From TrEMBL:
Pfam families named in the record: AraC_binding (PF02311), HTH_18 (PF12833)
HTH araC/xylS-type domain span: 173-271
Protein name, as recorded: AraC family transcriptional regulator
InterPro entries with a match to the protein in the record: AraC-bd, Homeodomain-like_sf, HTH-like, HTH_AraC, HTH_AraC-typ_CS, Tscrpt_reg_AraC-type_HTH
Alphabetical keyword list: DNA-binding, Transcription, Transcription regulation
CDD domains, sorted: cupin_MmsR-like_N
Origin species: Paenibacillus terricola
SMART domains: HTH_ARAC
Amino acid sequence: MIEYLPRSKQHTELYLTQYGSEACSPGHFHGPAVRSHYLLHYIMDGEGIFEVGGTRYELRKGQGFLIGPDVVTYYEANTTNPWTYCWFGFDGVLADSLLKQAGLTLDSPIFHYEQDDRIYQYFTYMNESKRYHKARETHLTGLLYSLLSLLVEFGPAMPISEHKESRAEIYVEKVKDFIETNYAQKITIEDIAQFIGLNRSYLCSLFHQELNTSIQDYLIRYRIHIACEMMGNAELTIGDIARSVGYYDPLLFSKMFKKVMGSSPRQYRFEVRKI
């Protein structure tokens, strides 16, 4: 069986285009041909061959193969023990990244999954989702994410990048992420240090060494940057904006804003509205 699905306008980051299953007859083949989207085949029984880029793979139950967009592939069921497989067609801006996390690329298109029957279960759940009316597309997208997360979890270890981040770079990124997530709260440098798990003075020293600025200054500038983006919203008062970026003292907000931008919040908003 096979079901084709309309292109998703809601889930452009990742969406299912089709899914199906087939108990192939001996010698049944497809190709050489190209596809316009990604296609994952998972072998539930039997054997067959898959050819791509001049390489031939002999595959069996518990293995699967990736077909990428616009790549010539050929696959054929064994003549004495033909395979039965299910497949999932999908696309989206996150598809390539998620597949790489699972160790699947055009140069490495084979995967193994023999832990349990969860891949077939996801196929079954997709088929059963026909009973959904309003939420089917979202439900199918969730199942696709679950399928790919399974391949990521049990796939090969990711290769070590040529550029290996230093420990200082990792800590700095954690500080930036914490600030960008929590800038609206009354956070302190001590809060950040406790979150990172480092001594406050040591963390401040690392941060300054990497970015040539202090954590406090980075926090202030990030808050004012977000405040500037809010200035164009006429429904927000200056006080609303101040509280939204973590300043509950309007005088302190005005002081920090002028320090960073060179003008008061009111003057800045007046200039923004003139443009």
